[in-house]
Every structure is written in structure tokens, then in C-alpha cells.
Amino acid sequence: MKTALVIGATGLVGKQLVQQLLTDERFGKVIAFSRRSLDIANSKLEEHLINFDEPDEWQHLVKGDVLFSTLGTTLKQAGGQNEQYKVDYYYQYKFAEAAAQNGVPTYVLVSSSGASPDSLLFYSRMKGTLEEAVKKLNFESIHIIQPGLLHGDRKDSRFGEELAYKVMHFLDKVGVAGKFRPYEDKVVAQAMINAAVSAQPGVHTHNLGQVFELAERVHMER
Predict the structure, then answer these.
(1) pLDDT tens digits, 200-217
(2) Neighbour tally for 27: CB within 10 Å
(3) What is the 3-state secondary structure (H, E, C) of the chain?
(4) Are the CB atoms for 88 and 127 separated by under 8 Å?
(5) CATH number for the segment(s) 2-221
(6) Residue pLDDT, tens place only, 163-191
(7) What strands lie across the sheet with 45-49, from one edge to the other?
(8) Residue 90 contacts by C-beta under 8 Å, 6 or more apart in sequence?
């Protein structure tokens, strides 16, 4: 059985990912690195409460079979672009770098549709820059998941995203949203797990409709 490493476990996709990993017989241990406890009682779960700004304190602990990276914040929550960049780029990159140096073979990253280092949009440029950086790390297998609009049970209210979800959900119901239909948190988590166990070497990017297909294969295989 595999050992899963997770950062971003308290976020929307991260919470779903941990729940699914804990019930997945292919994974014998789930190690979550976060700033606060998940408050989950499960013999498979191991938690490390860390300060991401102090890699010397935690990088030796980043050992396992696959690193799942779902860490992220919003511009509003972070308080500015520099602070958001530190969470969404620097923290994730430093953790991936530590995993690669420690011999973790597989890396699965949640990015965003439209991510590009050449984008005029700060968020898309930041995500694209991270993608390009982690592709250069010494992993045997890298899977980059690029979903569209995410939806699930968030603690924080996001009016713009909720409005967009309602519009896209309606378009999906009438059959015109196609690959742009909203992504439930559990679907993205399923896609991440399936990518991790696929044992495909090299770099693989899964965008929009491909994420749904990846998640459906999980359902069929389990």
C-alpha cells in the first residue's frame, strides 16, 4: 500500500482528497502537512503541523510514494499579490522540491485551467509559472490537474464564484456547458487519486473535460 503526502488538506479539494484517501485500500498511510489540525480521528492519518516558512523544520519529513499538492488561497484572504504568490507558488514549490530531493516518485498538482507563465492575468500567470517550475524537478511521474470552476462546501463565502456556479450549473442542465461545466471538489479529488495510481512516467497535464474522464476512470476501477 502507498503512503500519500498531502498539503492543502484543509482546503476545498484537499478535504475531499483526504477523506477519499482514508477509505482507499490502495493507500496505507496519509500524511497531512498543514498549519492547523484536520480534527480527524483515523489510524491511517498522520499529521504534521508546520510553518511553511521554515522548510528546515519539515523538509526531512516529506517522504512517501506520492505528493498531492492542493494548497492555495485567494487574493482577498492573502491580503495582496505578494502574499498570495508566497502561498500558491513558493510554499508549493518548496514542498515539491523537498519531495523530489527525498525520492518521492509521484507528484500530483491541482492547478487551474488557463494557467500559463505568459498570461496577462496574475492568477493564471502564477499557476503557469509554478507548473513550469515543478516540471523540472526530479519526479518519475508528474500529473497536473487543470479544472475549471470549482464548487463544494466552502467555509468562506465567495459571491462571484457562487454566481458563476449557478450560471454554469444551469447551462450544464440544459446541455450546453460541455467541458466547461463546474467541477465538484470530490470529482477533482478522484481525478488526483487516479492520476497517482496510474503509474505513468513523465509529465501529464489534464485539462477541463480530461479531468472528468480521469475521475470517471477512478469510479470504474474501484
Answers:
(1) 899 999 886 676 677 776
(2) 21
(3) CEEEEEECCCCHHHHHHHHHHHCCCCEEEEEEEECCCCCCCCCCEEEEECCCCCHHHHHHHCCCCEEEECCCCCHHHHCCHHHHHHHHHHHHHHHHHHHHHCCCCEEEEECCCCCCCCCCCHHHHHHHHHHHHHHCCCCCEEEEEECCCEECCCCCCCHHHHHHHHHHHHHHHCCCCHHHCCEEHHHHHHHHHHHHHCCCCEEEEEECHHHHHHHHHHHHHC
(4) yes
(5) 3.40.50.720
(6) 443 444 434 444 444 454 556 778 888 88
(7) 45-49, 27-34, 2-7, 66-69, 106-110, 141-146, 202-207
(8) none
Q: What average pLDDT does this structure show over 67-73?
A: 94
Instruction: Report in angstroms the alpha-carbon separations of 55 from 35, 58, 97.
Output: 13, 5, 10
Find out whether 52 and 72 touch, Cβ atoms under 8 Å: no
pTM above 0.85, yes or no: no
Provide the 10 A C-beta neighbour count for residue 177. Answer: 17
Q: What nine digits make up the cell of 154?
A: 466552502
Q: In one letter, which amino acid is 168?
A: M
What pLDDT, in 10s, does the model give residues 20-62? 999 999 999 999 999 999 999 999 999 999 999 999 999 999 9
Tell me the Ramachandran region of residue 39: left when phi exceeds 0, alpha when psi lies from -120 to 50, beta otherwise: left
**Domain residue spans of the chain:** 2-221
Q: What is the pLDDT of residue 170?
A: 39
